[in-house]
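Protocol step 4 of 6.
Sequence for MIC19 protein (Lanius ludovicianus) entered exactly as in the expression construct, tag removed. Do not edit the line below.
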Amino acid sequence: MGGGGSTRRVTFEADENENITVVKGVRLSDSVIDRMKEPSSPGRQPRGSGAVNDEELKKRIAEELALERARRDPEAQKRRLKQEQMYVRDEFGKLLERERISSNEHLTRAILRERAATEEERQKAQRFARQLEEKDRELKKHDAYYKEQLARLEERSAQFYKVTTEQYQKAADEVSARFK
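Step 5 output, structure tokens:
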């Protein structure tokens, strides 16, 4: 569009309101159309030769198209930016939803693990309580057995003491009777 001369010819037509329209699909801004309607300014070449006018016109059109694109680009950028923002919001929304679902799943799993661990601890405590009761019963049996054994031994010891004391008294009486 810029440096080299273009071989493409652009033809213009005036519609019924004397607006100039482009025939071969080139869009022109209102300012370009207004300049095209104006007679040539004093600093320019007169409209004598068709080749010079075509080249000058091509340059004007290229400049105006560049200006129009520059003017439209910010609007298009704004639209694209808004679209991108909406897309990013949607993606963040989806990401946040996935994270929420994932964290809920992790939380649910953690709660289930905690419940399982609590149930396991409860069963373990019950098992230890049963074992403790069993040990307690066993200790009571042993205690009763040893008390019984102790009572027997004390009874035997008392009998032995009684017999020994009687024999001692008897022997002492015999010794005293002999030496009197």
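Step 6, annotate. The first helix runs from residue 30 to 37.
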